[in-house]
Amino acid sequence: MNGIIIGAVVGSPAFQPPGAVHPFHSPNARTLITERPALWRGPTVARLDYLCRLPVGWNGYRAGPVSFNVAHFALRLLDAVCGPETPAPSLVPGSSGDLQIEWHSQTIDIELHIIAPNVVQAWRETPETGEDGQEVPLTIDFTEVAQWIKTLAEPSSAPIETAA
Amino acid sequence: MPLSKPPRDATGEVVPHNHEGIMQTDRIIRRVSEEHFVPDPKAATGRRVSSLAFQASTIGNRGMSVDIESSIVEAGIDPTTFVTTPQYIGSVWFHAGYLRSEGFLVGYDPLPENPHHGEVWGNFTKGLRKKLLKVAQWFVEIDNVDLHVAS
Q1: Residue B40: its chain A contacts at CB < 8 A?
Q2: 8 A C-beta contact, residue A66 and residue A48
């Protein structure tokens, strides 16, 4: 199942006895169609919220929190490139309000360094790239990254679940 | 002997430099926060240090903050205590000579809150950050986190 939920809600303020049956075509009925949120989204949003509240000096020096603009862009990026079953990534704060999104599996490492909105250094290491990896600077087109992330879902490359 | 004052620009900002008082064999300490720890099944402990732990700032004089062990010792302070105050945090070290051999400048940049603060300046490419991860040694080790992970 792909998580699409269809339901009917009766909006009448009148008292409704338990067990009452409300016809689907009732004028007060609303039909809601909602998608089950992707598994990675909840933990990711919570982690981004946390990173945006880091105190200055969290790294032992003078680093500040992740900037809201970077966090917002990161979430939009993930919405664009991740599927509903994509494992939740690790999110690592940088020292200048930046952020790195990472997945690590037995065979694939993917790191997306968000330096600023639309300024991203994407990198991955696979058995084919060797340990130097493949680095791609990106701005608005993340098609290639979406392809990389699809490979995470393959059984041989499933990463460990993260606490984000 | 305390480190001599570093060179500064017209605004008073320390400019990138190789400080002559920081010897090649001096240990340069980089603090590593738990925010830098990520899960990785390739790590023996299941956790590793992110490559972003070794990164220059994009503001100010654009270096990577470090602590200079020789300066701390010169001041009569235990270095382990110094780099775990005010918050207990992990750290790694490199020889200044190694960093310079990779093209970095290693200089002195004292701060009001950290008179033993230094900077490492250079081009922190992904490849070099990965290399630093491979070479780094724990100064204050954090349990259940790997520095070195087999590819």
Answers
A1: 104, 109, 160
A2: yes
Cross-chain Cβ contact A160/B46 below 8 Å = yes
Write the DSSP symbol of residue A161. Answer: P
Q: Write out pLDDT tens, residues A28-43.
A: 777 767 666 788 999 9
**B63's tokens:** 């270096």
Which residues on chain B are in Cβ contact (under 8 Å) with A121? 126
Helix, strand, or coil (residue B95): strand
Query: Is residue B18 a part of any domain in this protein?
Result: no
Please give the ipTM for the structure prediction: 0.93
The answer to whether residue A30 is domain-embedded is no
pTM assigned to the model? 0.84
Are A104 and B48 within 8 A, CB to CB?
yes
B15, part of any domain: no
Please state the separation of Cα A15 from the chain's center in Å: 42
